[in-house]
Design a protein that fits this description.
The complex is a heterodimer of chains A (about 240) and B (about 180). With about 240 residues, chain A is an all-alpha fold. Chain A is about 75% helix and about 0% strand. Chain A folds into two domains: about 140 residues, no CATH class; about 60 residues, no CATH class. A two-stranded antiparallel sheet of chain A has the order 1-2. In chain A, helix 2 runs antiparallel to helix 5, helix 4 packs antiparallel against helix 5 and helix 6 packs antiparallel against helix 7. The longest helix of chain A is centred in the last third of the chain and has 32 residues. Chain A is flat, with a radius of gyration of 23 Å. Chain B has one domain. Chain B contains nine helices and no strands. In chain B, helix 2 runs antiparallel to helix 3, helix 3 runs antiparallel to helix 4 and helix 4 packs antiparallel against helix 5. The longest helix of chain B is centred in the last third of the chain and has 30 residues. Classes of the chains: A mainly alpha (about 240), B mainly alpha (about 180). At the A-B interface, helix 4, helix 5, helix 7 and helix 8 of A face helix 1, helix 2, helix 3, helix 6 and helix 7 of B.
């Protein structure tokens, strides 16, 4: 994860650039702004070594594009143009679909590229070095850790329940009946685990107050700080421009 | 928080018309109070954004509403029986559905998650206007989702051993023990 350029930069730099791109996704003026932004985000992801996020984002975005096409292109308001297959398409609906589809694609790609570059432990070290509230930073890191653990536990549980005869495919009623068998054990296990972890972390001084020492804080070069400030300044300038326009 | 995300994924794999991706928020609001629920809801929405796109952060007020209502239901012994849980769930579904419809229509013009948008598209094809289709789709799916979530959490709380319930006074009150 940290071998890519995006993974090697300071976590706050990656976070700031992502945040700015997301805001730009909302603010970019139509019609050409959103598609251009999406292209720029894809290019940035590829150049910084997290190009797989572009493909991963397509998995999330393509269903949204299809739904936009159906909801606004096919079922949109008049005036209509003739579609190549003989039906009609809403002119305004198609324009909105392209605009919104590009905005969503830019935001999803930026988010997933950030997720690909994000190293929770580097982020925690950076937060400690900056004297951010430790509990808030730790909550994010602990949740990401717990997510992968619970995800694996959920997979094991699902397989175990299937060997005991649980059906996870079939009619709606059959699938709905599978919910308690999959969800209850996971919820109970999470309650027990949360209890044990809280005790373990408390005895290790997690709730202690006072300054903490970052053992291995990521380097924060001057150039990166300049990039962060420039990104935020550019965003503010765009907000002012858009409000005035 | 992790429970919200993992259970949401399990249920999505079952391809059911519910999400159940707020069980963690509800559970924490019942065990630790609505403030804990607000925190969990906010952070899990942030992390969900990291995994599927930050555009869904617009729906964070839904998480807050769920935390407040689950906390309120716990105070009002709303998980003492299946019918009471279901009634609180239906109330939560109606309010969350209305709030979700407003966000979905104003910011996304009705195109959000697959299931709810498919219902909206079906209603549009039957001649409903966009605002009506989005509102009906959001309220119907949220009504189903939140009712199922409250009933599930109610069953879970009532099944908890007294040893665990004893450590969470609000949860004990929620199931009237």
């Amino acid at each position: 994860m940290t071998t890519s350029f995006a993974g090697r930069v300071h976590p706050f730099t990656a976070g700031t650039v992502t945040l700015v791109l997301i805001f730009l996704g909302v603010l970019a003026p139509a019609p050409s702004g959103p598609p251009l932004l999406y292209a720029a985000v894809c290019l940035l992801a590829i150049v910084t070594g997290v190009g797989r996020a572009v493909l991963h984002a397509l998995v999330v975005v393509v269903p949204l594009w299809v739904l936009l096409f159906i909801m606004h292109g096919i079922l949109g308001e008049a005036p209509y143009l003739t579609a190549p297959w003989g039906g009609t398409l809403s002119v305004a609906g198609m324009a909105w679909g392209v605009e919104q589809g590009s905005r969503l694609a830019a935001i999803v790609t930026a988010s997933l590229a950030f997720a690909r570059a994000f190293d929770p432990h580097r982020f925690l070290q950076a937060a400690i070095a900056r004297k951010w509230p430790f509990s808030a930073a730790f909550l994010i890191v602990a949740t990401l850790d717990a997510m992968s653990r619970f995800g694996q536990q959920a997979t094991r549980l699902r397989e175990a329940q299937r060997t005991r005869g649980l059906k996870v495919r079939g009619s709606l009623a059959t699938r709905a009946r599978a919910i308690p068998a999959l969800v209850f054990p996971l919820l109970l296990a999470s309650l027990t685990e949360a209890d044990e972890r809280a005790l373990a972390l408390e005895t290790r001084g997690l709730t202690a107050t006072g300054p903490r020492t970052a053992i291995d804080p990521p380097a924060d070069h001057l150039l990166e700080r300049v990039v962060r400030w420039m990104a935020v300044t550019a965003l503010l300038a765009i907000i002012i421009w858009r409000v005035r326009a | 928080m992790a429970i919200n995300l993992v259970i949401g994924r399990i249920v999505a794999e079952l391809a059911l018309p519910v999400y159940l991706d707020t069980l963690g928020t509800m559970l924490v609001a019942i065990l630790a109070g609505w403030r804990g629920g607000l925190l969990v809801g906010s952070i899990s929405q942030l992390l969900a954004g990291m995994l599927s796109g930050y555009q869904w952060i617009a729906f964070m007020p839904i998480q807050w509403l769920i935390a407040l209502l689950a906390g309120g239901a716990a105070q009002g012994k709303g998980f003492a029986g299946a019918w009471r849980s279901g009634a609180w769930g239906a109330l939560c579904g109606l309010l969350c559905g209305a709030c979700s419809a407003a966000i979905s229509y104003l910011l996304f013009r009705g195109v959000t998650a697959g299931g709810v948008t498919a219902v909206g598209a079906l209603l549009r094809s039957l001649g409903a206007s966009l605002p009506v289709a989005v509102t009906a789709a959001s309220i119907s799916t949220d009504l189903l989702d939140k009712t199922a979530a409250f009933v599930l959490v109610g069953f879970l709380l009532r099944a908890l051993p007294r040893r665990i319930l004893g450590r969470f006074p609000l949860a004990a009150r929620a199931v009237d023990r």
